[in-house]
Specification:
Elements: E1 2-4, E2 28-34, H1 39-45, E3 54-63, E4 66-69, H2 73-84, E5 88-89, E6 92-94, E7 96-97, E8 100-101, H3 103-111, H4 113-129, E9 134-138, H5 147-163, E10 167-173, H6 190-196, E11 199-203, H7 220-233, E12 239-244, E13 246-250, E14 256-259, E15 272-274, E16 291-297, E17 303-308, H8 311-322, E18 328-332, H9 339-348
């Protein structure tokens, strides 16, 4: 298995008033955690909480049956520890169904003003009742026809939360231009939403996805373009960039996610190692940056191709987009990382953008 790195030149920080380099702006790092986390996961993650400023525990699922809580003992322990450390806790609500994100219940709610009002009231009640700092709204798989109704819903939810002194964080698809090549971004009025919510979380991952061709999860050049679009469409203070702590293994009946911490040993523990796969054609005109890639043959004879986001890739993306003024990040998900992942991000708060060492074969 090989970890293939590309270099990133250092970029100067802003000049200090008294000459030399000014201290870099402090970065704000959030991470999602699984609401069903068990006690062992909580014990492993607890030491890393001090490297974060915000926690997004996925505690609520919105479906046709309404809002369902999914919090387990491990997640509750992590939330309690996070609050002791002074982290802002904004539980996430997602529209997950049995086979992925399900837009149908969201669309039905958006179309009915009375249902929308009930949904806003229910979301606010969960935040206020649990004394959390706010809410992370992650409703996906919407279409362009939902754009205006979704913005109206966010306006109502933001007003209700703000009236109770709570914050609203809204997840939006990654976008790199005013003319996107797929429909998902057209369901979101980025400029309007940025004025309503306290922050927009741009989900800059799944450039290669389970239903497509194997390849990088978040190429460096693409992430930089997402950040450029974000700071042009939104006030810089409202931009949070979502970054991945995982990869995918393509080759079985269905591509499966691979946690960042398991990437180095994934293939060797599952079959006969092979030469790393080439980049897909679509990535060859893109600045890819650091990417983990490996291949193996499983006991059934199937060839698997694994691409993932190594710690070095995360590090260089943070450095690159800080040069554009982005200092707020969100990691999907905390369970997929390891201690050095979070320590490295914490260290970014004490230094400016920097060079990533080029090495074609780090093992």
């Amino acid at each position: 298995m090989a970890l293939l790195l590309a270099g990133l030149g250092a970029a100067p920080g802003p000049a200090a008033a008294r000459g030399g380099e000014a201290p870099p702006p402090t970065i704000d790092v959030a991470a999602w955690i699984d609401g069903g986390s068990d006690a062992d996961t909580a014990a492993r993650l607890a030491p890393s909480l001090s490297s974060l400023t915000t926690l997004f525990p996925v505690l609520h699922v919105f479906s046709g049956a309404g809002i369902r809580g999914v919090g387990g003992d491990g997640a509750r322990a992590l939330i309690a520890r996070a609050e002791d450390l002074g982290l802002a806790v904004l539980p996430a609500v997602q529209n997950l169904g049995d086979s992925g994100f399900d837009a149908a219940p969201v669309r039905a709610m958006l179309a009915d003003p009375a249902a929308r009002a009930r949904h806003v009231a229910a979301l606010v009640a969960t935040v206020v009742g649990d004394r959390h700092a706010g809410l992370n709204l992650d409703y996906e798989s919407l279409t362009p026809g939902d754009r205006d109704a979704f913005a109206a819903f966010v306006a109502e939810l933001a007003a209700a939360l703000h009236a109770r002194g709570k914050r609203l964080s809204v997840c939006v698809p990654a976008r790199t231009s005013a003319d996107p090549t797929w429909d998902a971004p057209l369901a979101f009025d980025y400029v309007r939403l940025a004025l309503l919510a306290d922050e927009l979380v741009y989900l800059a991952y799944d450039w290669s996805w389970p239903g497509g061709e194997p390849g990088p999860i978040a190429p460096l050049g693409w992430v930089r373009e997402v950040a450029r679009f974000a700071v042009a469409a939104s006030p810089a203070a409202s931009v949070r960039l979502g970054l991945p702590l995982y990869g995918y293994d393509w080759g079985g009946p269905q591509a499966v996610p691979v946690p960042q911490r398991d990437l180095p040993t994934w293939g060797a523990s599952r079959g006969e190692p092979m030469d790393p796969p080439a980049l897909p054609e679509a990535a060859r005109g893109t600045e890819v940056g650091a990417v983990f890639r490996a291949a193996y043959r499983d006991p059934e004879g199937r060839v698997h191709r694994v691409f993932g986001e190594p710690i070095q890739g995360l590090d260089e993306k943070v450095a690159a987009v800080r040069a554009l003024g982005v200092t707020r990040f969100a990691l999907w998900r905390a369970e997929f990382g390891e201690g050095s992942t979070f320590e490295g991000l914490k260290d970014h708060g004490r230094r400016g953008t920097h060079a990533v060492t080029k090495d074609d074969s780090v093992r």
